[in-house]
Amino acid sequence: MSAYDPSSDGAKMSFAKEMSYIDYLSLDPILGAQKRQSNAHDEMLFIIQHQTSELWMRLALHELSTAREELVKGNFPPAFKMLSRVARIFEQLNNAWDVLRTMTPSEYTEFRDDLGASSGFQSHQYRLIEFILGNRNRAMMKVHEHRPELHHMLGQELEGKSLYHVALDNLAGQLGVAFDTGIYRLDQPHQANQAVMDAWTTVYQSPHAYWSLYELAEKLVDLEDYFRRWRFNHVTTVERIIGFKRGTGGTSGVKYLRKMLEVELFPELWHLRGQL
Q: Is 169 helix (H, G, I), strand (E, B) or coil?
């Protein structure tokens, strides 16, 4: 039996003058971006883990930004699709920790010093995701001052409403209520508000009367659920590999990450469950 020739079925085999798969995906710069600083075998895993995470976060930002735009216009269905996708992106990011956890403390120490002061704490994309979702803290921008264009981008995000703010606008509009302007804290984390919780509670008590708001609320809860799992797995992975050492970027490491577990993005949507 002769070897199969794909061209016999019409497959194009020559790309000297046309765009190929490698060209379309710009694979040359992507696959050439793994610049190890040591000879340690596991540094490649560490680099690819974080590079792929940044790519997934790039997509999350694309989806979140557009979902917010759709909610501003009152277009719920496409926003729901995008929010569901972001939740699954964080599921993907969550699963990636399982791969990184195959690296032992001994293997990590072979190249940890070569990281210098670089740290995931400095990820501007992660910071932007938090800002869009509503966990806003202007002090966190300082670490990005050495990159003016990134610092400016983060500053611009703090000048407008977060995704949750836009959700609250829809909530207030459909229920015919008005929230105190103080809940729209543009450069500070959102704080639980009783009036907002009462409004969401009304939705949950009559879901069929407010189905779009009800579904929006659950999409947000689903997203935060996956986001929390990602944070938790981040903590356990770091503790498993470096214990309670300080992070390479100077944070307290596991202690800092555990503190982040206490952050609630959409607090009213979680707290109302106790009063239904």
A: helix
- Other Cβ atoms less than 10 A from the Cβ of 176: the count is 6
| Rounded Cα distance, 118 and 15, in Å | 40
What CA–CA distance (Å, rounded) separates 216 from 202? 14
Q: Is residue 92 part of a domain?
A: yes
Query: Has residue 262 been placed in a domain?
Result: yes
In a domain, residue 265? The reply is yes
Residues 6+ apart with CB under 8 A from 96: 49, 52, 53
124-133 vs 211-242: helix crossing angle, rounded to 10? 150
Residue 21 lies in a domain: no
Query: The domain that contains 180 carries what CATH number?
Result: 1.20.58.480
- In tens, the pLDDT along 172-186 reads 999 999 999 999 999
pLDDT digits (tens, 9 = 90+) for 135-169: 999 998 899 999 999 999 999 999 999 999 999 99
Site of tokens 């939705």: 203
Give the ranges where the chain is alpha helix by DSSP (H): 21-24, 27-31, 43-72, 76-100, 105-109, 124-133, 148-157, 163-175, 194-205, 211-242, 254-260, 267-271
What are 83's two structure tokens?
Answer: 């929010």
- Other CB atoms closer than 10 Å to residue 94's CB: what's the count? 18
Contact 67, 86 (CB under 8 A): yes
**Nearest of 45, 55, 53, 57 to residue 101 by alpha carbon:** 45
The span from the CA of 184 to the CA of 186, in Å, is: 6
Average pLDDT over residues 62-91: 97
Model confidence pTM above 0.90: yes
Q: How many domains does the chain have?
A: 1
